[in-house]
Design goal:
491 residues, alpha/beta, eleven-stranded parallel beta sheet, 27% helix, 29% strand, binds zinc ion
Length: 491
């Protein structure tokens, strides 16, 4: 008997049962498959031995009545002699256990696996290929590999491919997945100019979960059929991502669960034919402007036809500022929004750019928002513009007479006047709420911070109160505070 003690947790109470009669053993009493004596393995032709061993156990399995168990757990099938197809043209009607094995250059071709095939924890050097095979279920969890190819295969039950890591390609094509498909927590990478993950011409008849994966290189889903609810969530891609030419027969979600880590960090493409979408494609937390122009045009037209839903965190803006959260009561949030609205109009006029505010979340105690524009500038320039426009905005009311009379163009005078009236009205609202205990100076300061991205606004609550009081006093004599009749009484 081989004296190898298994490391795999479920097998740790066992030793390998391969006898000296079945295969040769090394000087430490380990069978050639578990031996770590590489010279011994090479000298005795490890791969030829393995082929012979397989032929024997497969023949034995057919003569036994019970369901056989093909145990290759923790086998070290290296170094390889270069022959690629080891298993081919077979029907293996039993559990195939390759857990925690080390294998180089392996091809399984034209095999019908009647039971579960388990490769969990294995390390593959060179390419591993499954071609023209039929599986009950295949588990590829925590595997490490260079290249993985799955082609013309059929999975009657599950395909579970989790927590794995590649150094090269992962290519799955022309296959049918009848049961649940899970591709989670994998790290796909590839040499430059090659695809990290390519799934092409496959049909998924049941649920598909593609979650929490990561790829340095391109990720491509093309010519696929999704029959049931499916999702691609939290796929961190640093290169092109594409989903094209596929059929979506139920709801399909593409999203990031983290608002601060949006999907699509590079040019991406979602191109689907309208008539091939029977469900709804839901997009959440994506970098919208990283989608190609044809993709955006198509998705927007599909949105009108209710075939695409843009969920939360889809920034349909070319540039946006950092999110800002301000703790304020519901009532005072209204004043903040009034102020940001006036500022937005002023900003657009001053910088000849479109500018808006998007509320991300509102609760009775806080508000989270950001500013956006569809002008093609960087976030740094955008935030710089907000910070440089803010003091000019306050200067209007600090030097209001000058602000209005500085210009000779009637349109400009009117614009400055409108802005002044708006700011004055907000200042009045803020100041009049103070003695009633509806707002505190600290809360006024928070409102003033809303139109600034460096949190050091060039005006504070004290200034606002003083300016408001001064203007009221002046207006009683000079009618400077525009919009307020000098005979009107202000309390
Ligand atoms: Zn052994």
């Amino acid at each position: 008997m081989c004296n190898y003690q298994y490391l795999t947790r479920e097998l740790s109470s066992l030793t390998c049962s391969i006898t000296v009669e079945e295969v040769i053993h090394d000087k430490d009493g380990k069978c050639i498959f578990h031996s770590e004596d590489y010279e011994f393995k090479v000298a005795n032709g490890i791969i030829a031995h393995f082929k012979e061993f397989c032929e024997k156990i497969i023949k034995d399995a057919y003569t036994q009545s019970k369901t056989p168990h093909f145990s290759f757990a923790e086998f070290i099938l290296v170094p390889h002699d270069g022959s690629l197809s080891i298993f081919k043209n077979l029907e293996l009607d039993g559990y195939v256990d390759f857990r925690n094995s080390k294998i180089n250059y392996f091809t399984f071709s034209n095999i019908i696996f009647g039971e579960y095939v388990n490769f969990n924890g294995s390390k593959f050097g060179g390419p591993i290929r499954f071609a023209d095979c039929e599986f009950e279920s295949l588990a590829l969890n925590e595997i490490e590999y260079d290249h993985l190819y799955i082609e013309n295969c059929k999975f009657r039950n599950q395909f579970i491919f989790n927590k794995s890591k590649s150094n090269g390609y992962t290519d799955i094509n022309n296959s049918i997945f009848e049961g649940f498909t899970s591709i989670n927590d994998c790290e796909f990478s590839a040499e430059l100019e090659h695809t990290g993950l390519n799934i092409e011409k496959c049909e998924f008849k049941s649920l598909v979960d593609i979650l929490d994966n990561h790829s340095e290189q391109e990720v491509r889903f093309t010519k696929l059929i999704f029959n049931k609810q499916s999702r691609i969530s939290d796929f961190k891609t640093y290169n092109r991502f594409s989903l094209t030419n596929s059929e979506i027969k139920d709801n399909f979600q593409i999203n990031s669960s983290y608002p601060k880590e949006k999907l699509f960090n590079n040019v991406s493409e979602i191109l689907l034919d309208e008539e091939k979408i029977q469900g709804v494609v839901i997009l959440e937390n994506i970098n919208y402007f990283n989608l190609s122009k044809p993709s955006r045009d198509l998705l927007e037209s599909l949105e009108k036809k209710e075939k695409v839903v843009f969920g939360s965190g889809v920034l349909k803006y070319r540039v946006s500022s950092e999110m800002k959260t301000i703790l304020l009561t519901d009532e005072n949030q209204e004043l903040l929004l009034e102020l940001t609205e006036v500022f937005s109009r002023y900003f657009s006029g001053e910088n000849h750019m479109n500018f808006g505010i998007q509320i991300y979340e509102r609760t009775p105690t806080q508000i989270t928002f950001f500013y956006f524009s569809n002008d093609d500038i960087s976030r740094e320039i955008f935030e710089g513009l907000i910070n440089s426009t803010e003091p000019r905005f306050w200067n209007l009311i600090k030097n209001q007479q000058q602000s209005v009379t500085n210009s000779t163009l009637p349109d400009k005078i009117l614009k400055a006047t409108d802005t002044l009236i708006d700011i004055a009205s907000i200042f009045l609202k803020l100041t009049s709420r103070l003695p009633l205990g509806k707002i505190s100076e600290a809360e006024i300061n928070k409102i003033l911070q809303s139109i600034n991205v460096n949190n050091q606004p060039s005006i504070n609550a004290r200034n606002v109160i003083n300016l408001t009081v001064n203007n009221i006093n002046k207006s009683n004599n000079q009618s400077i505070l525009l919009g307020i009749n000098n005979h009107q009484e202000i309390k």
